[in-house]
């Protein structure tokens, strides 16, 4: 809320700093610039922006409440032009200046400055909508359009209430960003207002909010206490950087008595530069996340049943080893399951000699031990009986399963690479199946 009255009342007008935001004439062309961070510089004297930024700041954009930079901004800082008001002072040269700014690299256009205040642009919502459509909307295809910047006043017809009236009258204006100003007494008040602004913008399909002026009310006319202002900027900057919908902000403002003292960044300026660096880091860094999931999988494996011939209840144990490949990232450390298996009735007849099997599907016969490589039941002669008898055979199958995975899923997260040797690991578990087998015995 930068007004002549407030500065004059505070007795803090500084001619050299140009403390009152005002229309400036272009004295040099802009360079095309790129931006990445949130923090910006609100200024009247571009040379002071250079004094604030120095060699290491990440302040990425700047504006001067007008549409002309009277000195070059530091390299890497994008200039954002503004149509401050609707009087002939601002409208007469608007077309030539905005087209020149866009040609020189500006990618955003800001609307009127606090039109909801009589001491500033002083426009009704309907008047602002009409001027916006005529002078700003035509550039929608060349730049991203920012709404008029409203105050944080909660009075009817001001602040966000004014914006809602404006956007209702200007629904076809191609506004993509809501701009707001805030002056208050605490970070918690700022947080509440920005949250409300983000919600309000969202109601009209606008996903971005810019905070183009903010400071403690006690510092509007100049920093009243460096320690208090420094703490405020540190806390506010941290929170603003965390709000994804709050995409740009600028403290009020780059001038002596504010972010600077005698042309050098003071403690408040240093805190703001630090916030700028944090915002640039968070917006440009790429975050890669990965997770390791351990999944226990029950695998059904068919095991050929061994043939058991007996006239009494017997227990046969079959052990086999099966290697199973499990694709990453699923890793099975061990599996255990109990399954009931129905085995069809077998007819047992008395016989003598050694029983043979063929598990290779060829003409070669194998002994039971060769076929299944496990203890096998022997063939026992059974007395002839004319009455079929039925016995219950319990078969316990213990199967060892070896699971192989391409790498160990423990911190740090497993990362596969064709150029790096991949370690392997395995673990074993046992699957136990118990089957109740009805056995029919017939007469020899």
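Sequence proposed for the structure above (444 residues):
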């Amino acid at each position: 809320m930068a007004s002549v009255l407030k500065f004059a009342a505070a007795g803090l007008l500084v001619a050299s700093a140009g403390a009152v935001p005002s229309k400036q004439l272009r004295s040099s062309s802009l360079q095309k610039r790129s931006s990445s961070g949130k923090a910006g510089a609100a200024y009247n004297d571009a040379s002071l922006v250079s004094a604030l930024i120095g060699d290491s700041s990440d302040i990425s954009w700047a504006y001067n409440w007008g549409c002309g930079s009277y000195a070059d901004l530091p390299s890497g800082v994008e200039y954002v032009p503004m149509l401050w008001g609707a009087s002939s002072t601002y409208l007469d040269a608007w077309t030539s200046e905005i087209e020149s700014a866009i040609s020189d690299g500006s990618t955003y256009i800001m609307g009127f400055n606090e039109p909801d205040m009589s001491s500033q642009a002083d426009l009704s919502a309907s008047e602002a909508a009409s001027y916006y459509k005529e002078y700003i909307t035509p550039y929608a295809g060349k730049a991203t359009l920012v709404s008029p910047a409203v105050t944080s006043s909660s009075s009817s017809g001001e602040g966000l209430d004014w914006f809602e009236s404006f956007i209702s009258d200007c629904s076809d204006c191609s506004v993509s960003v809501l701009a707001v100003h805030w002056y208050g007494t605490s970070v918690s008040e700022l947080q509440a207002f920005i949250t409300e602004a983000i919600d309000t913008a969202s109601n009209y399909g606008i996903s971005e909010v810019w905070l183009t002026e903010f400071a403690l009310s006690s510092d509007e006319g100049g920093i009243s206490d460096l320690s208090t202002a420094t703490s405020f900027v540190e806390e506010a900057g941290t929170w603003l950087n965390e709000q994804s919908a709050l995409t740009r902000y600028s403290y009020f403002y780059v001038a002596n008595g504010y972010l600077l003292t005698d042309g050098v960044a003071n403690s408040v300026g240093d805190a703001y530069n630090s916030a700028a660096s944090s915002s640039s880091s968070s917006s440009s860094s790429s975050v890669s996340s990965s997770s390791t999931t351990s999944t226990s999988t029950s695998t059904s494996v068919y095991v050929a049943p061994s043939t058991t011939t007996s006239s009494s209840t017997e227990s046969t144990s079959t052990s086999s080893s099966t290697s199973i490949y499990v694709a990453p990232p699923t890793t099975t450390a061990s599996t255990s399951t109990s399954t009931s298996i129905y085995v069809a009735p077998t007819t047992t007849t008395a016989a003598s000699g050694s029983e043979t099997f063929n598990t290779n599907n060829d003409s070669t016969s194998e002994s039971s031990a060769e076929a299944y490589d496990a203890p096998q039941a022997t063939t026992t002669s059974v007395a002839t009986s004319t009455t079929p008898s039925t016995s219950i055979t319990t078969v316990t199958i213990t199967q060892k399963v070896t699971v192989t995975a391409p790498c160990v899923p423990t911190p740090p997260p497993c990362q596969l690479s064709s150029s790096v040797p991949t370690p392997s690991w395995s673990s074993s578990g046992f699957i136990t199946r118990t089957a109740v087998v009805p056995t029919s015995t017939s007469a020899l």
